[in-house]
Amino acid sequence: MKNITPCRPKWKSSKMTDRERFNNQMHYKPVDRCFNMEFGYWEENYGLWKPFIENKITNEGEANIYFNFDKISGVGAPWLSPAFERKTLSETATSKTIVDFNGLICEIPKDGHSTIPHYIGSSIQGPDDWKKVKKEHLNPDNPSRKPDVAKMKAQHPENRDYPLGVHCGSMIGQVRDLLTVEGLSYAIYDYPEMVEDMIENQCVLIENFLDEVLPHFKFDYASGWEDICFKNGPLVSVDFFKEKVMPRYKRINAKLKKHGIDIWWIDCDGDVRPILKYFLEGGVNCLFPFEVMCCCHPGELLKEYGKDLRIMGGFDKTKMIAGPKAITEYMESLVPLVERGGYIPFCDHRCPPDVSWENYVFYLDLKEKTFGMK
């Protein structure tokens, strides 16, 4: 681990630990100040922001130490085990066509800049392919899937002072990752039994992991990832989500509740509103990092759903790009949400390179002035 000198002091606090603060804030209980965290940065930021370059900050973990954020951590299970072998199939002057770690054939820029790849095809074209992939990469009985609980306990002791979560994976987003958006859209109609078996297998992988780790830890939250929405709503029909995905959430939630875990956030970009009530019914009660441009101001949903819903994130990144005036106005709009509880503000996705270092520092300073301990 690098020896990183923080560029700013940790926010002032009373005797409350990061763990106590997180739990109180997410349960609408009194806190000394807001929990202070961010959701990381585009890869380009590490090569553009001069202080990152000078201090050799190259990833989110190092950046969190550099900015002295409150600590939050988590444990999770592997997904593909093993992953597909990454191969280059062809290349031009500006791009490469590869098989990625998910077995997808995609075109990526040769210079490595961050962008959504252009997906061309999948390793799964039908049920026979799925049976092979399931056996070779997603087999619940693969010995490599047994977690090293002793190692986890050594890394995260019982008397820790920071919140620790258990990652509950993805029911449908990673199925989409195996098939592509287009492939999933066709497969739902062409091979419905295959798609449901893919979702069921996702659920079993997580259930098995939870059975191994839940008895040994007192987790503060659960997390998950879907990314099954875009700016116009979900990438699958609402009925499909309700009938095929939500029941699996309920099974996982029953295990979480049995072990006292009642905060479960899902990282799902895009407009989640059409399926939000089914997230909630399934047990997911927190949205993360809540993309504003694709959805709405976080206050709208918190007002609509009351204390049944929490949100982490939701600071419109375009306001950071615009500068101090826009940042100040938006920060002021979040004050009632932080005072309400169940809301932790940070950038509504990875901070993009369009945000200047000066604007980002202004944002961090203002956030501390607004939500730090007075």
Short key terms for the protein model shown above:
alpha/beta; 2 domains; 374 residues; TIM Barrel; 4-stranded antiparallel sheet
The count of domains is 2
| Major β-sheet strand ordering | 1-6-7-10-11-12-13
Could you report the average pLDDT, rounded to the nearest whole number? 96
Q: Percent range for helical residues? A: 40-55%
Can you count the beta strands? Answer: 13
The CATH class name of the largest domain reads: Alpha Beta
CATH architecture of the largest domain: Alpha-Beta Barrel
| Radius of gyration over all CA atoms, rounded | 21 Å
Uncertain spans, ≥5 residues at pLDDT below 50? none
Biggest sheet architecture: 7 strands, parallel
Sketch the topology as an H/E string, one letter per element. Answer: HHHHEEEEEHHEHHHEEEHEHEHEHHEH
CATH topology of the largest domain: TIM Barrel
Structural class: alpha/beta
For the terminal residues, how far apart are their CA atoms?
A: 34 Å
* Strand proportion: 5-15%
Name the overall outline: globular
Helical segment count:
15
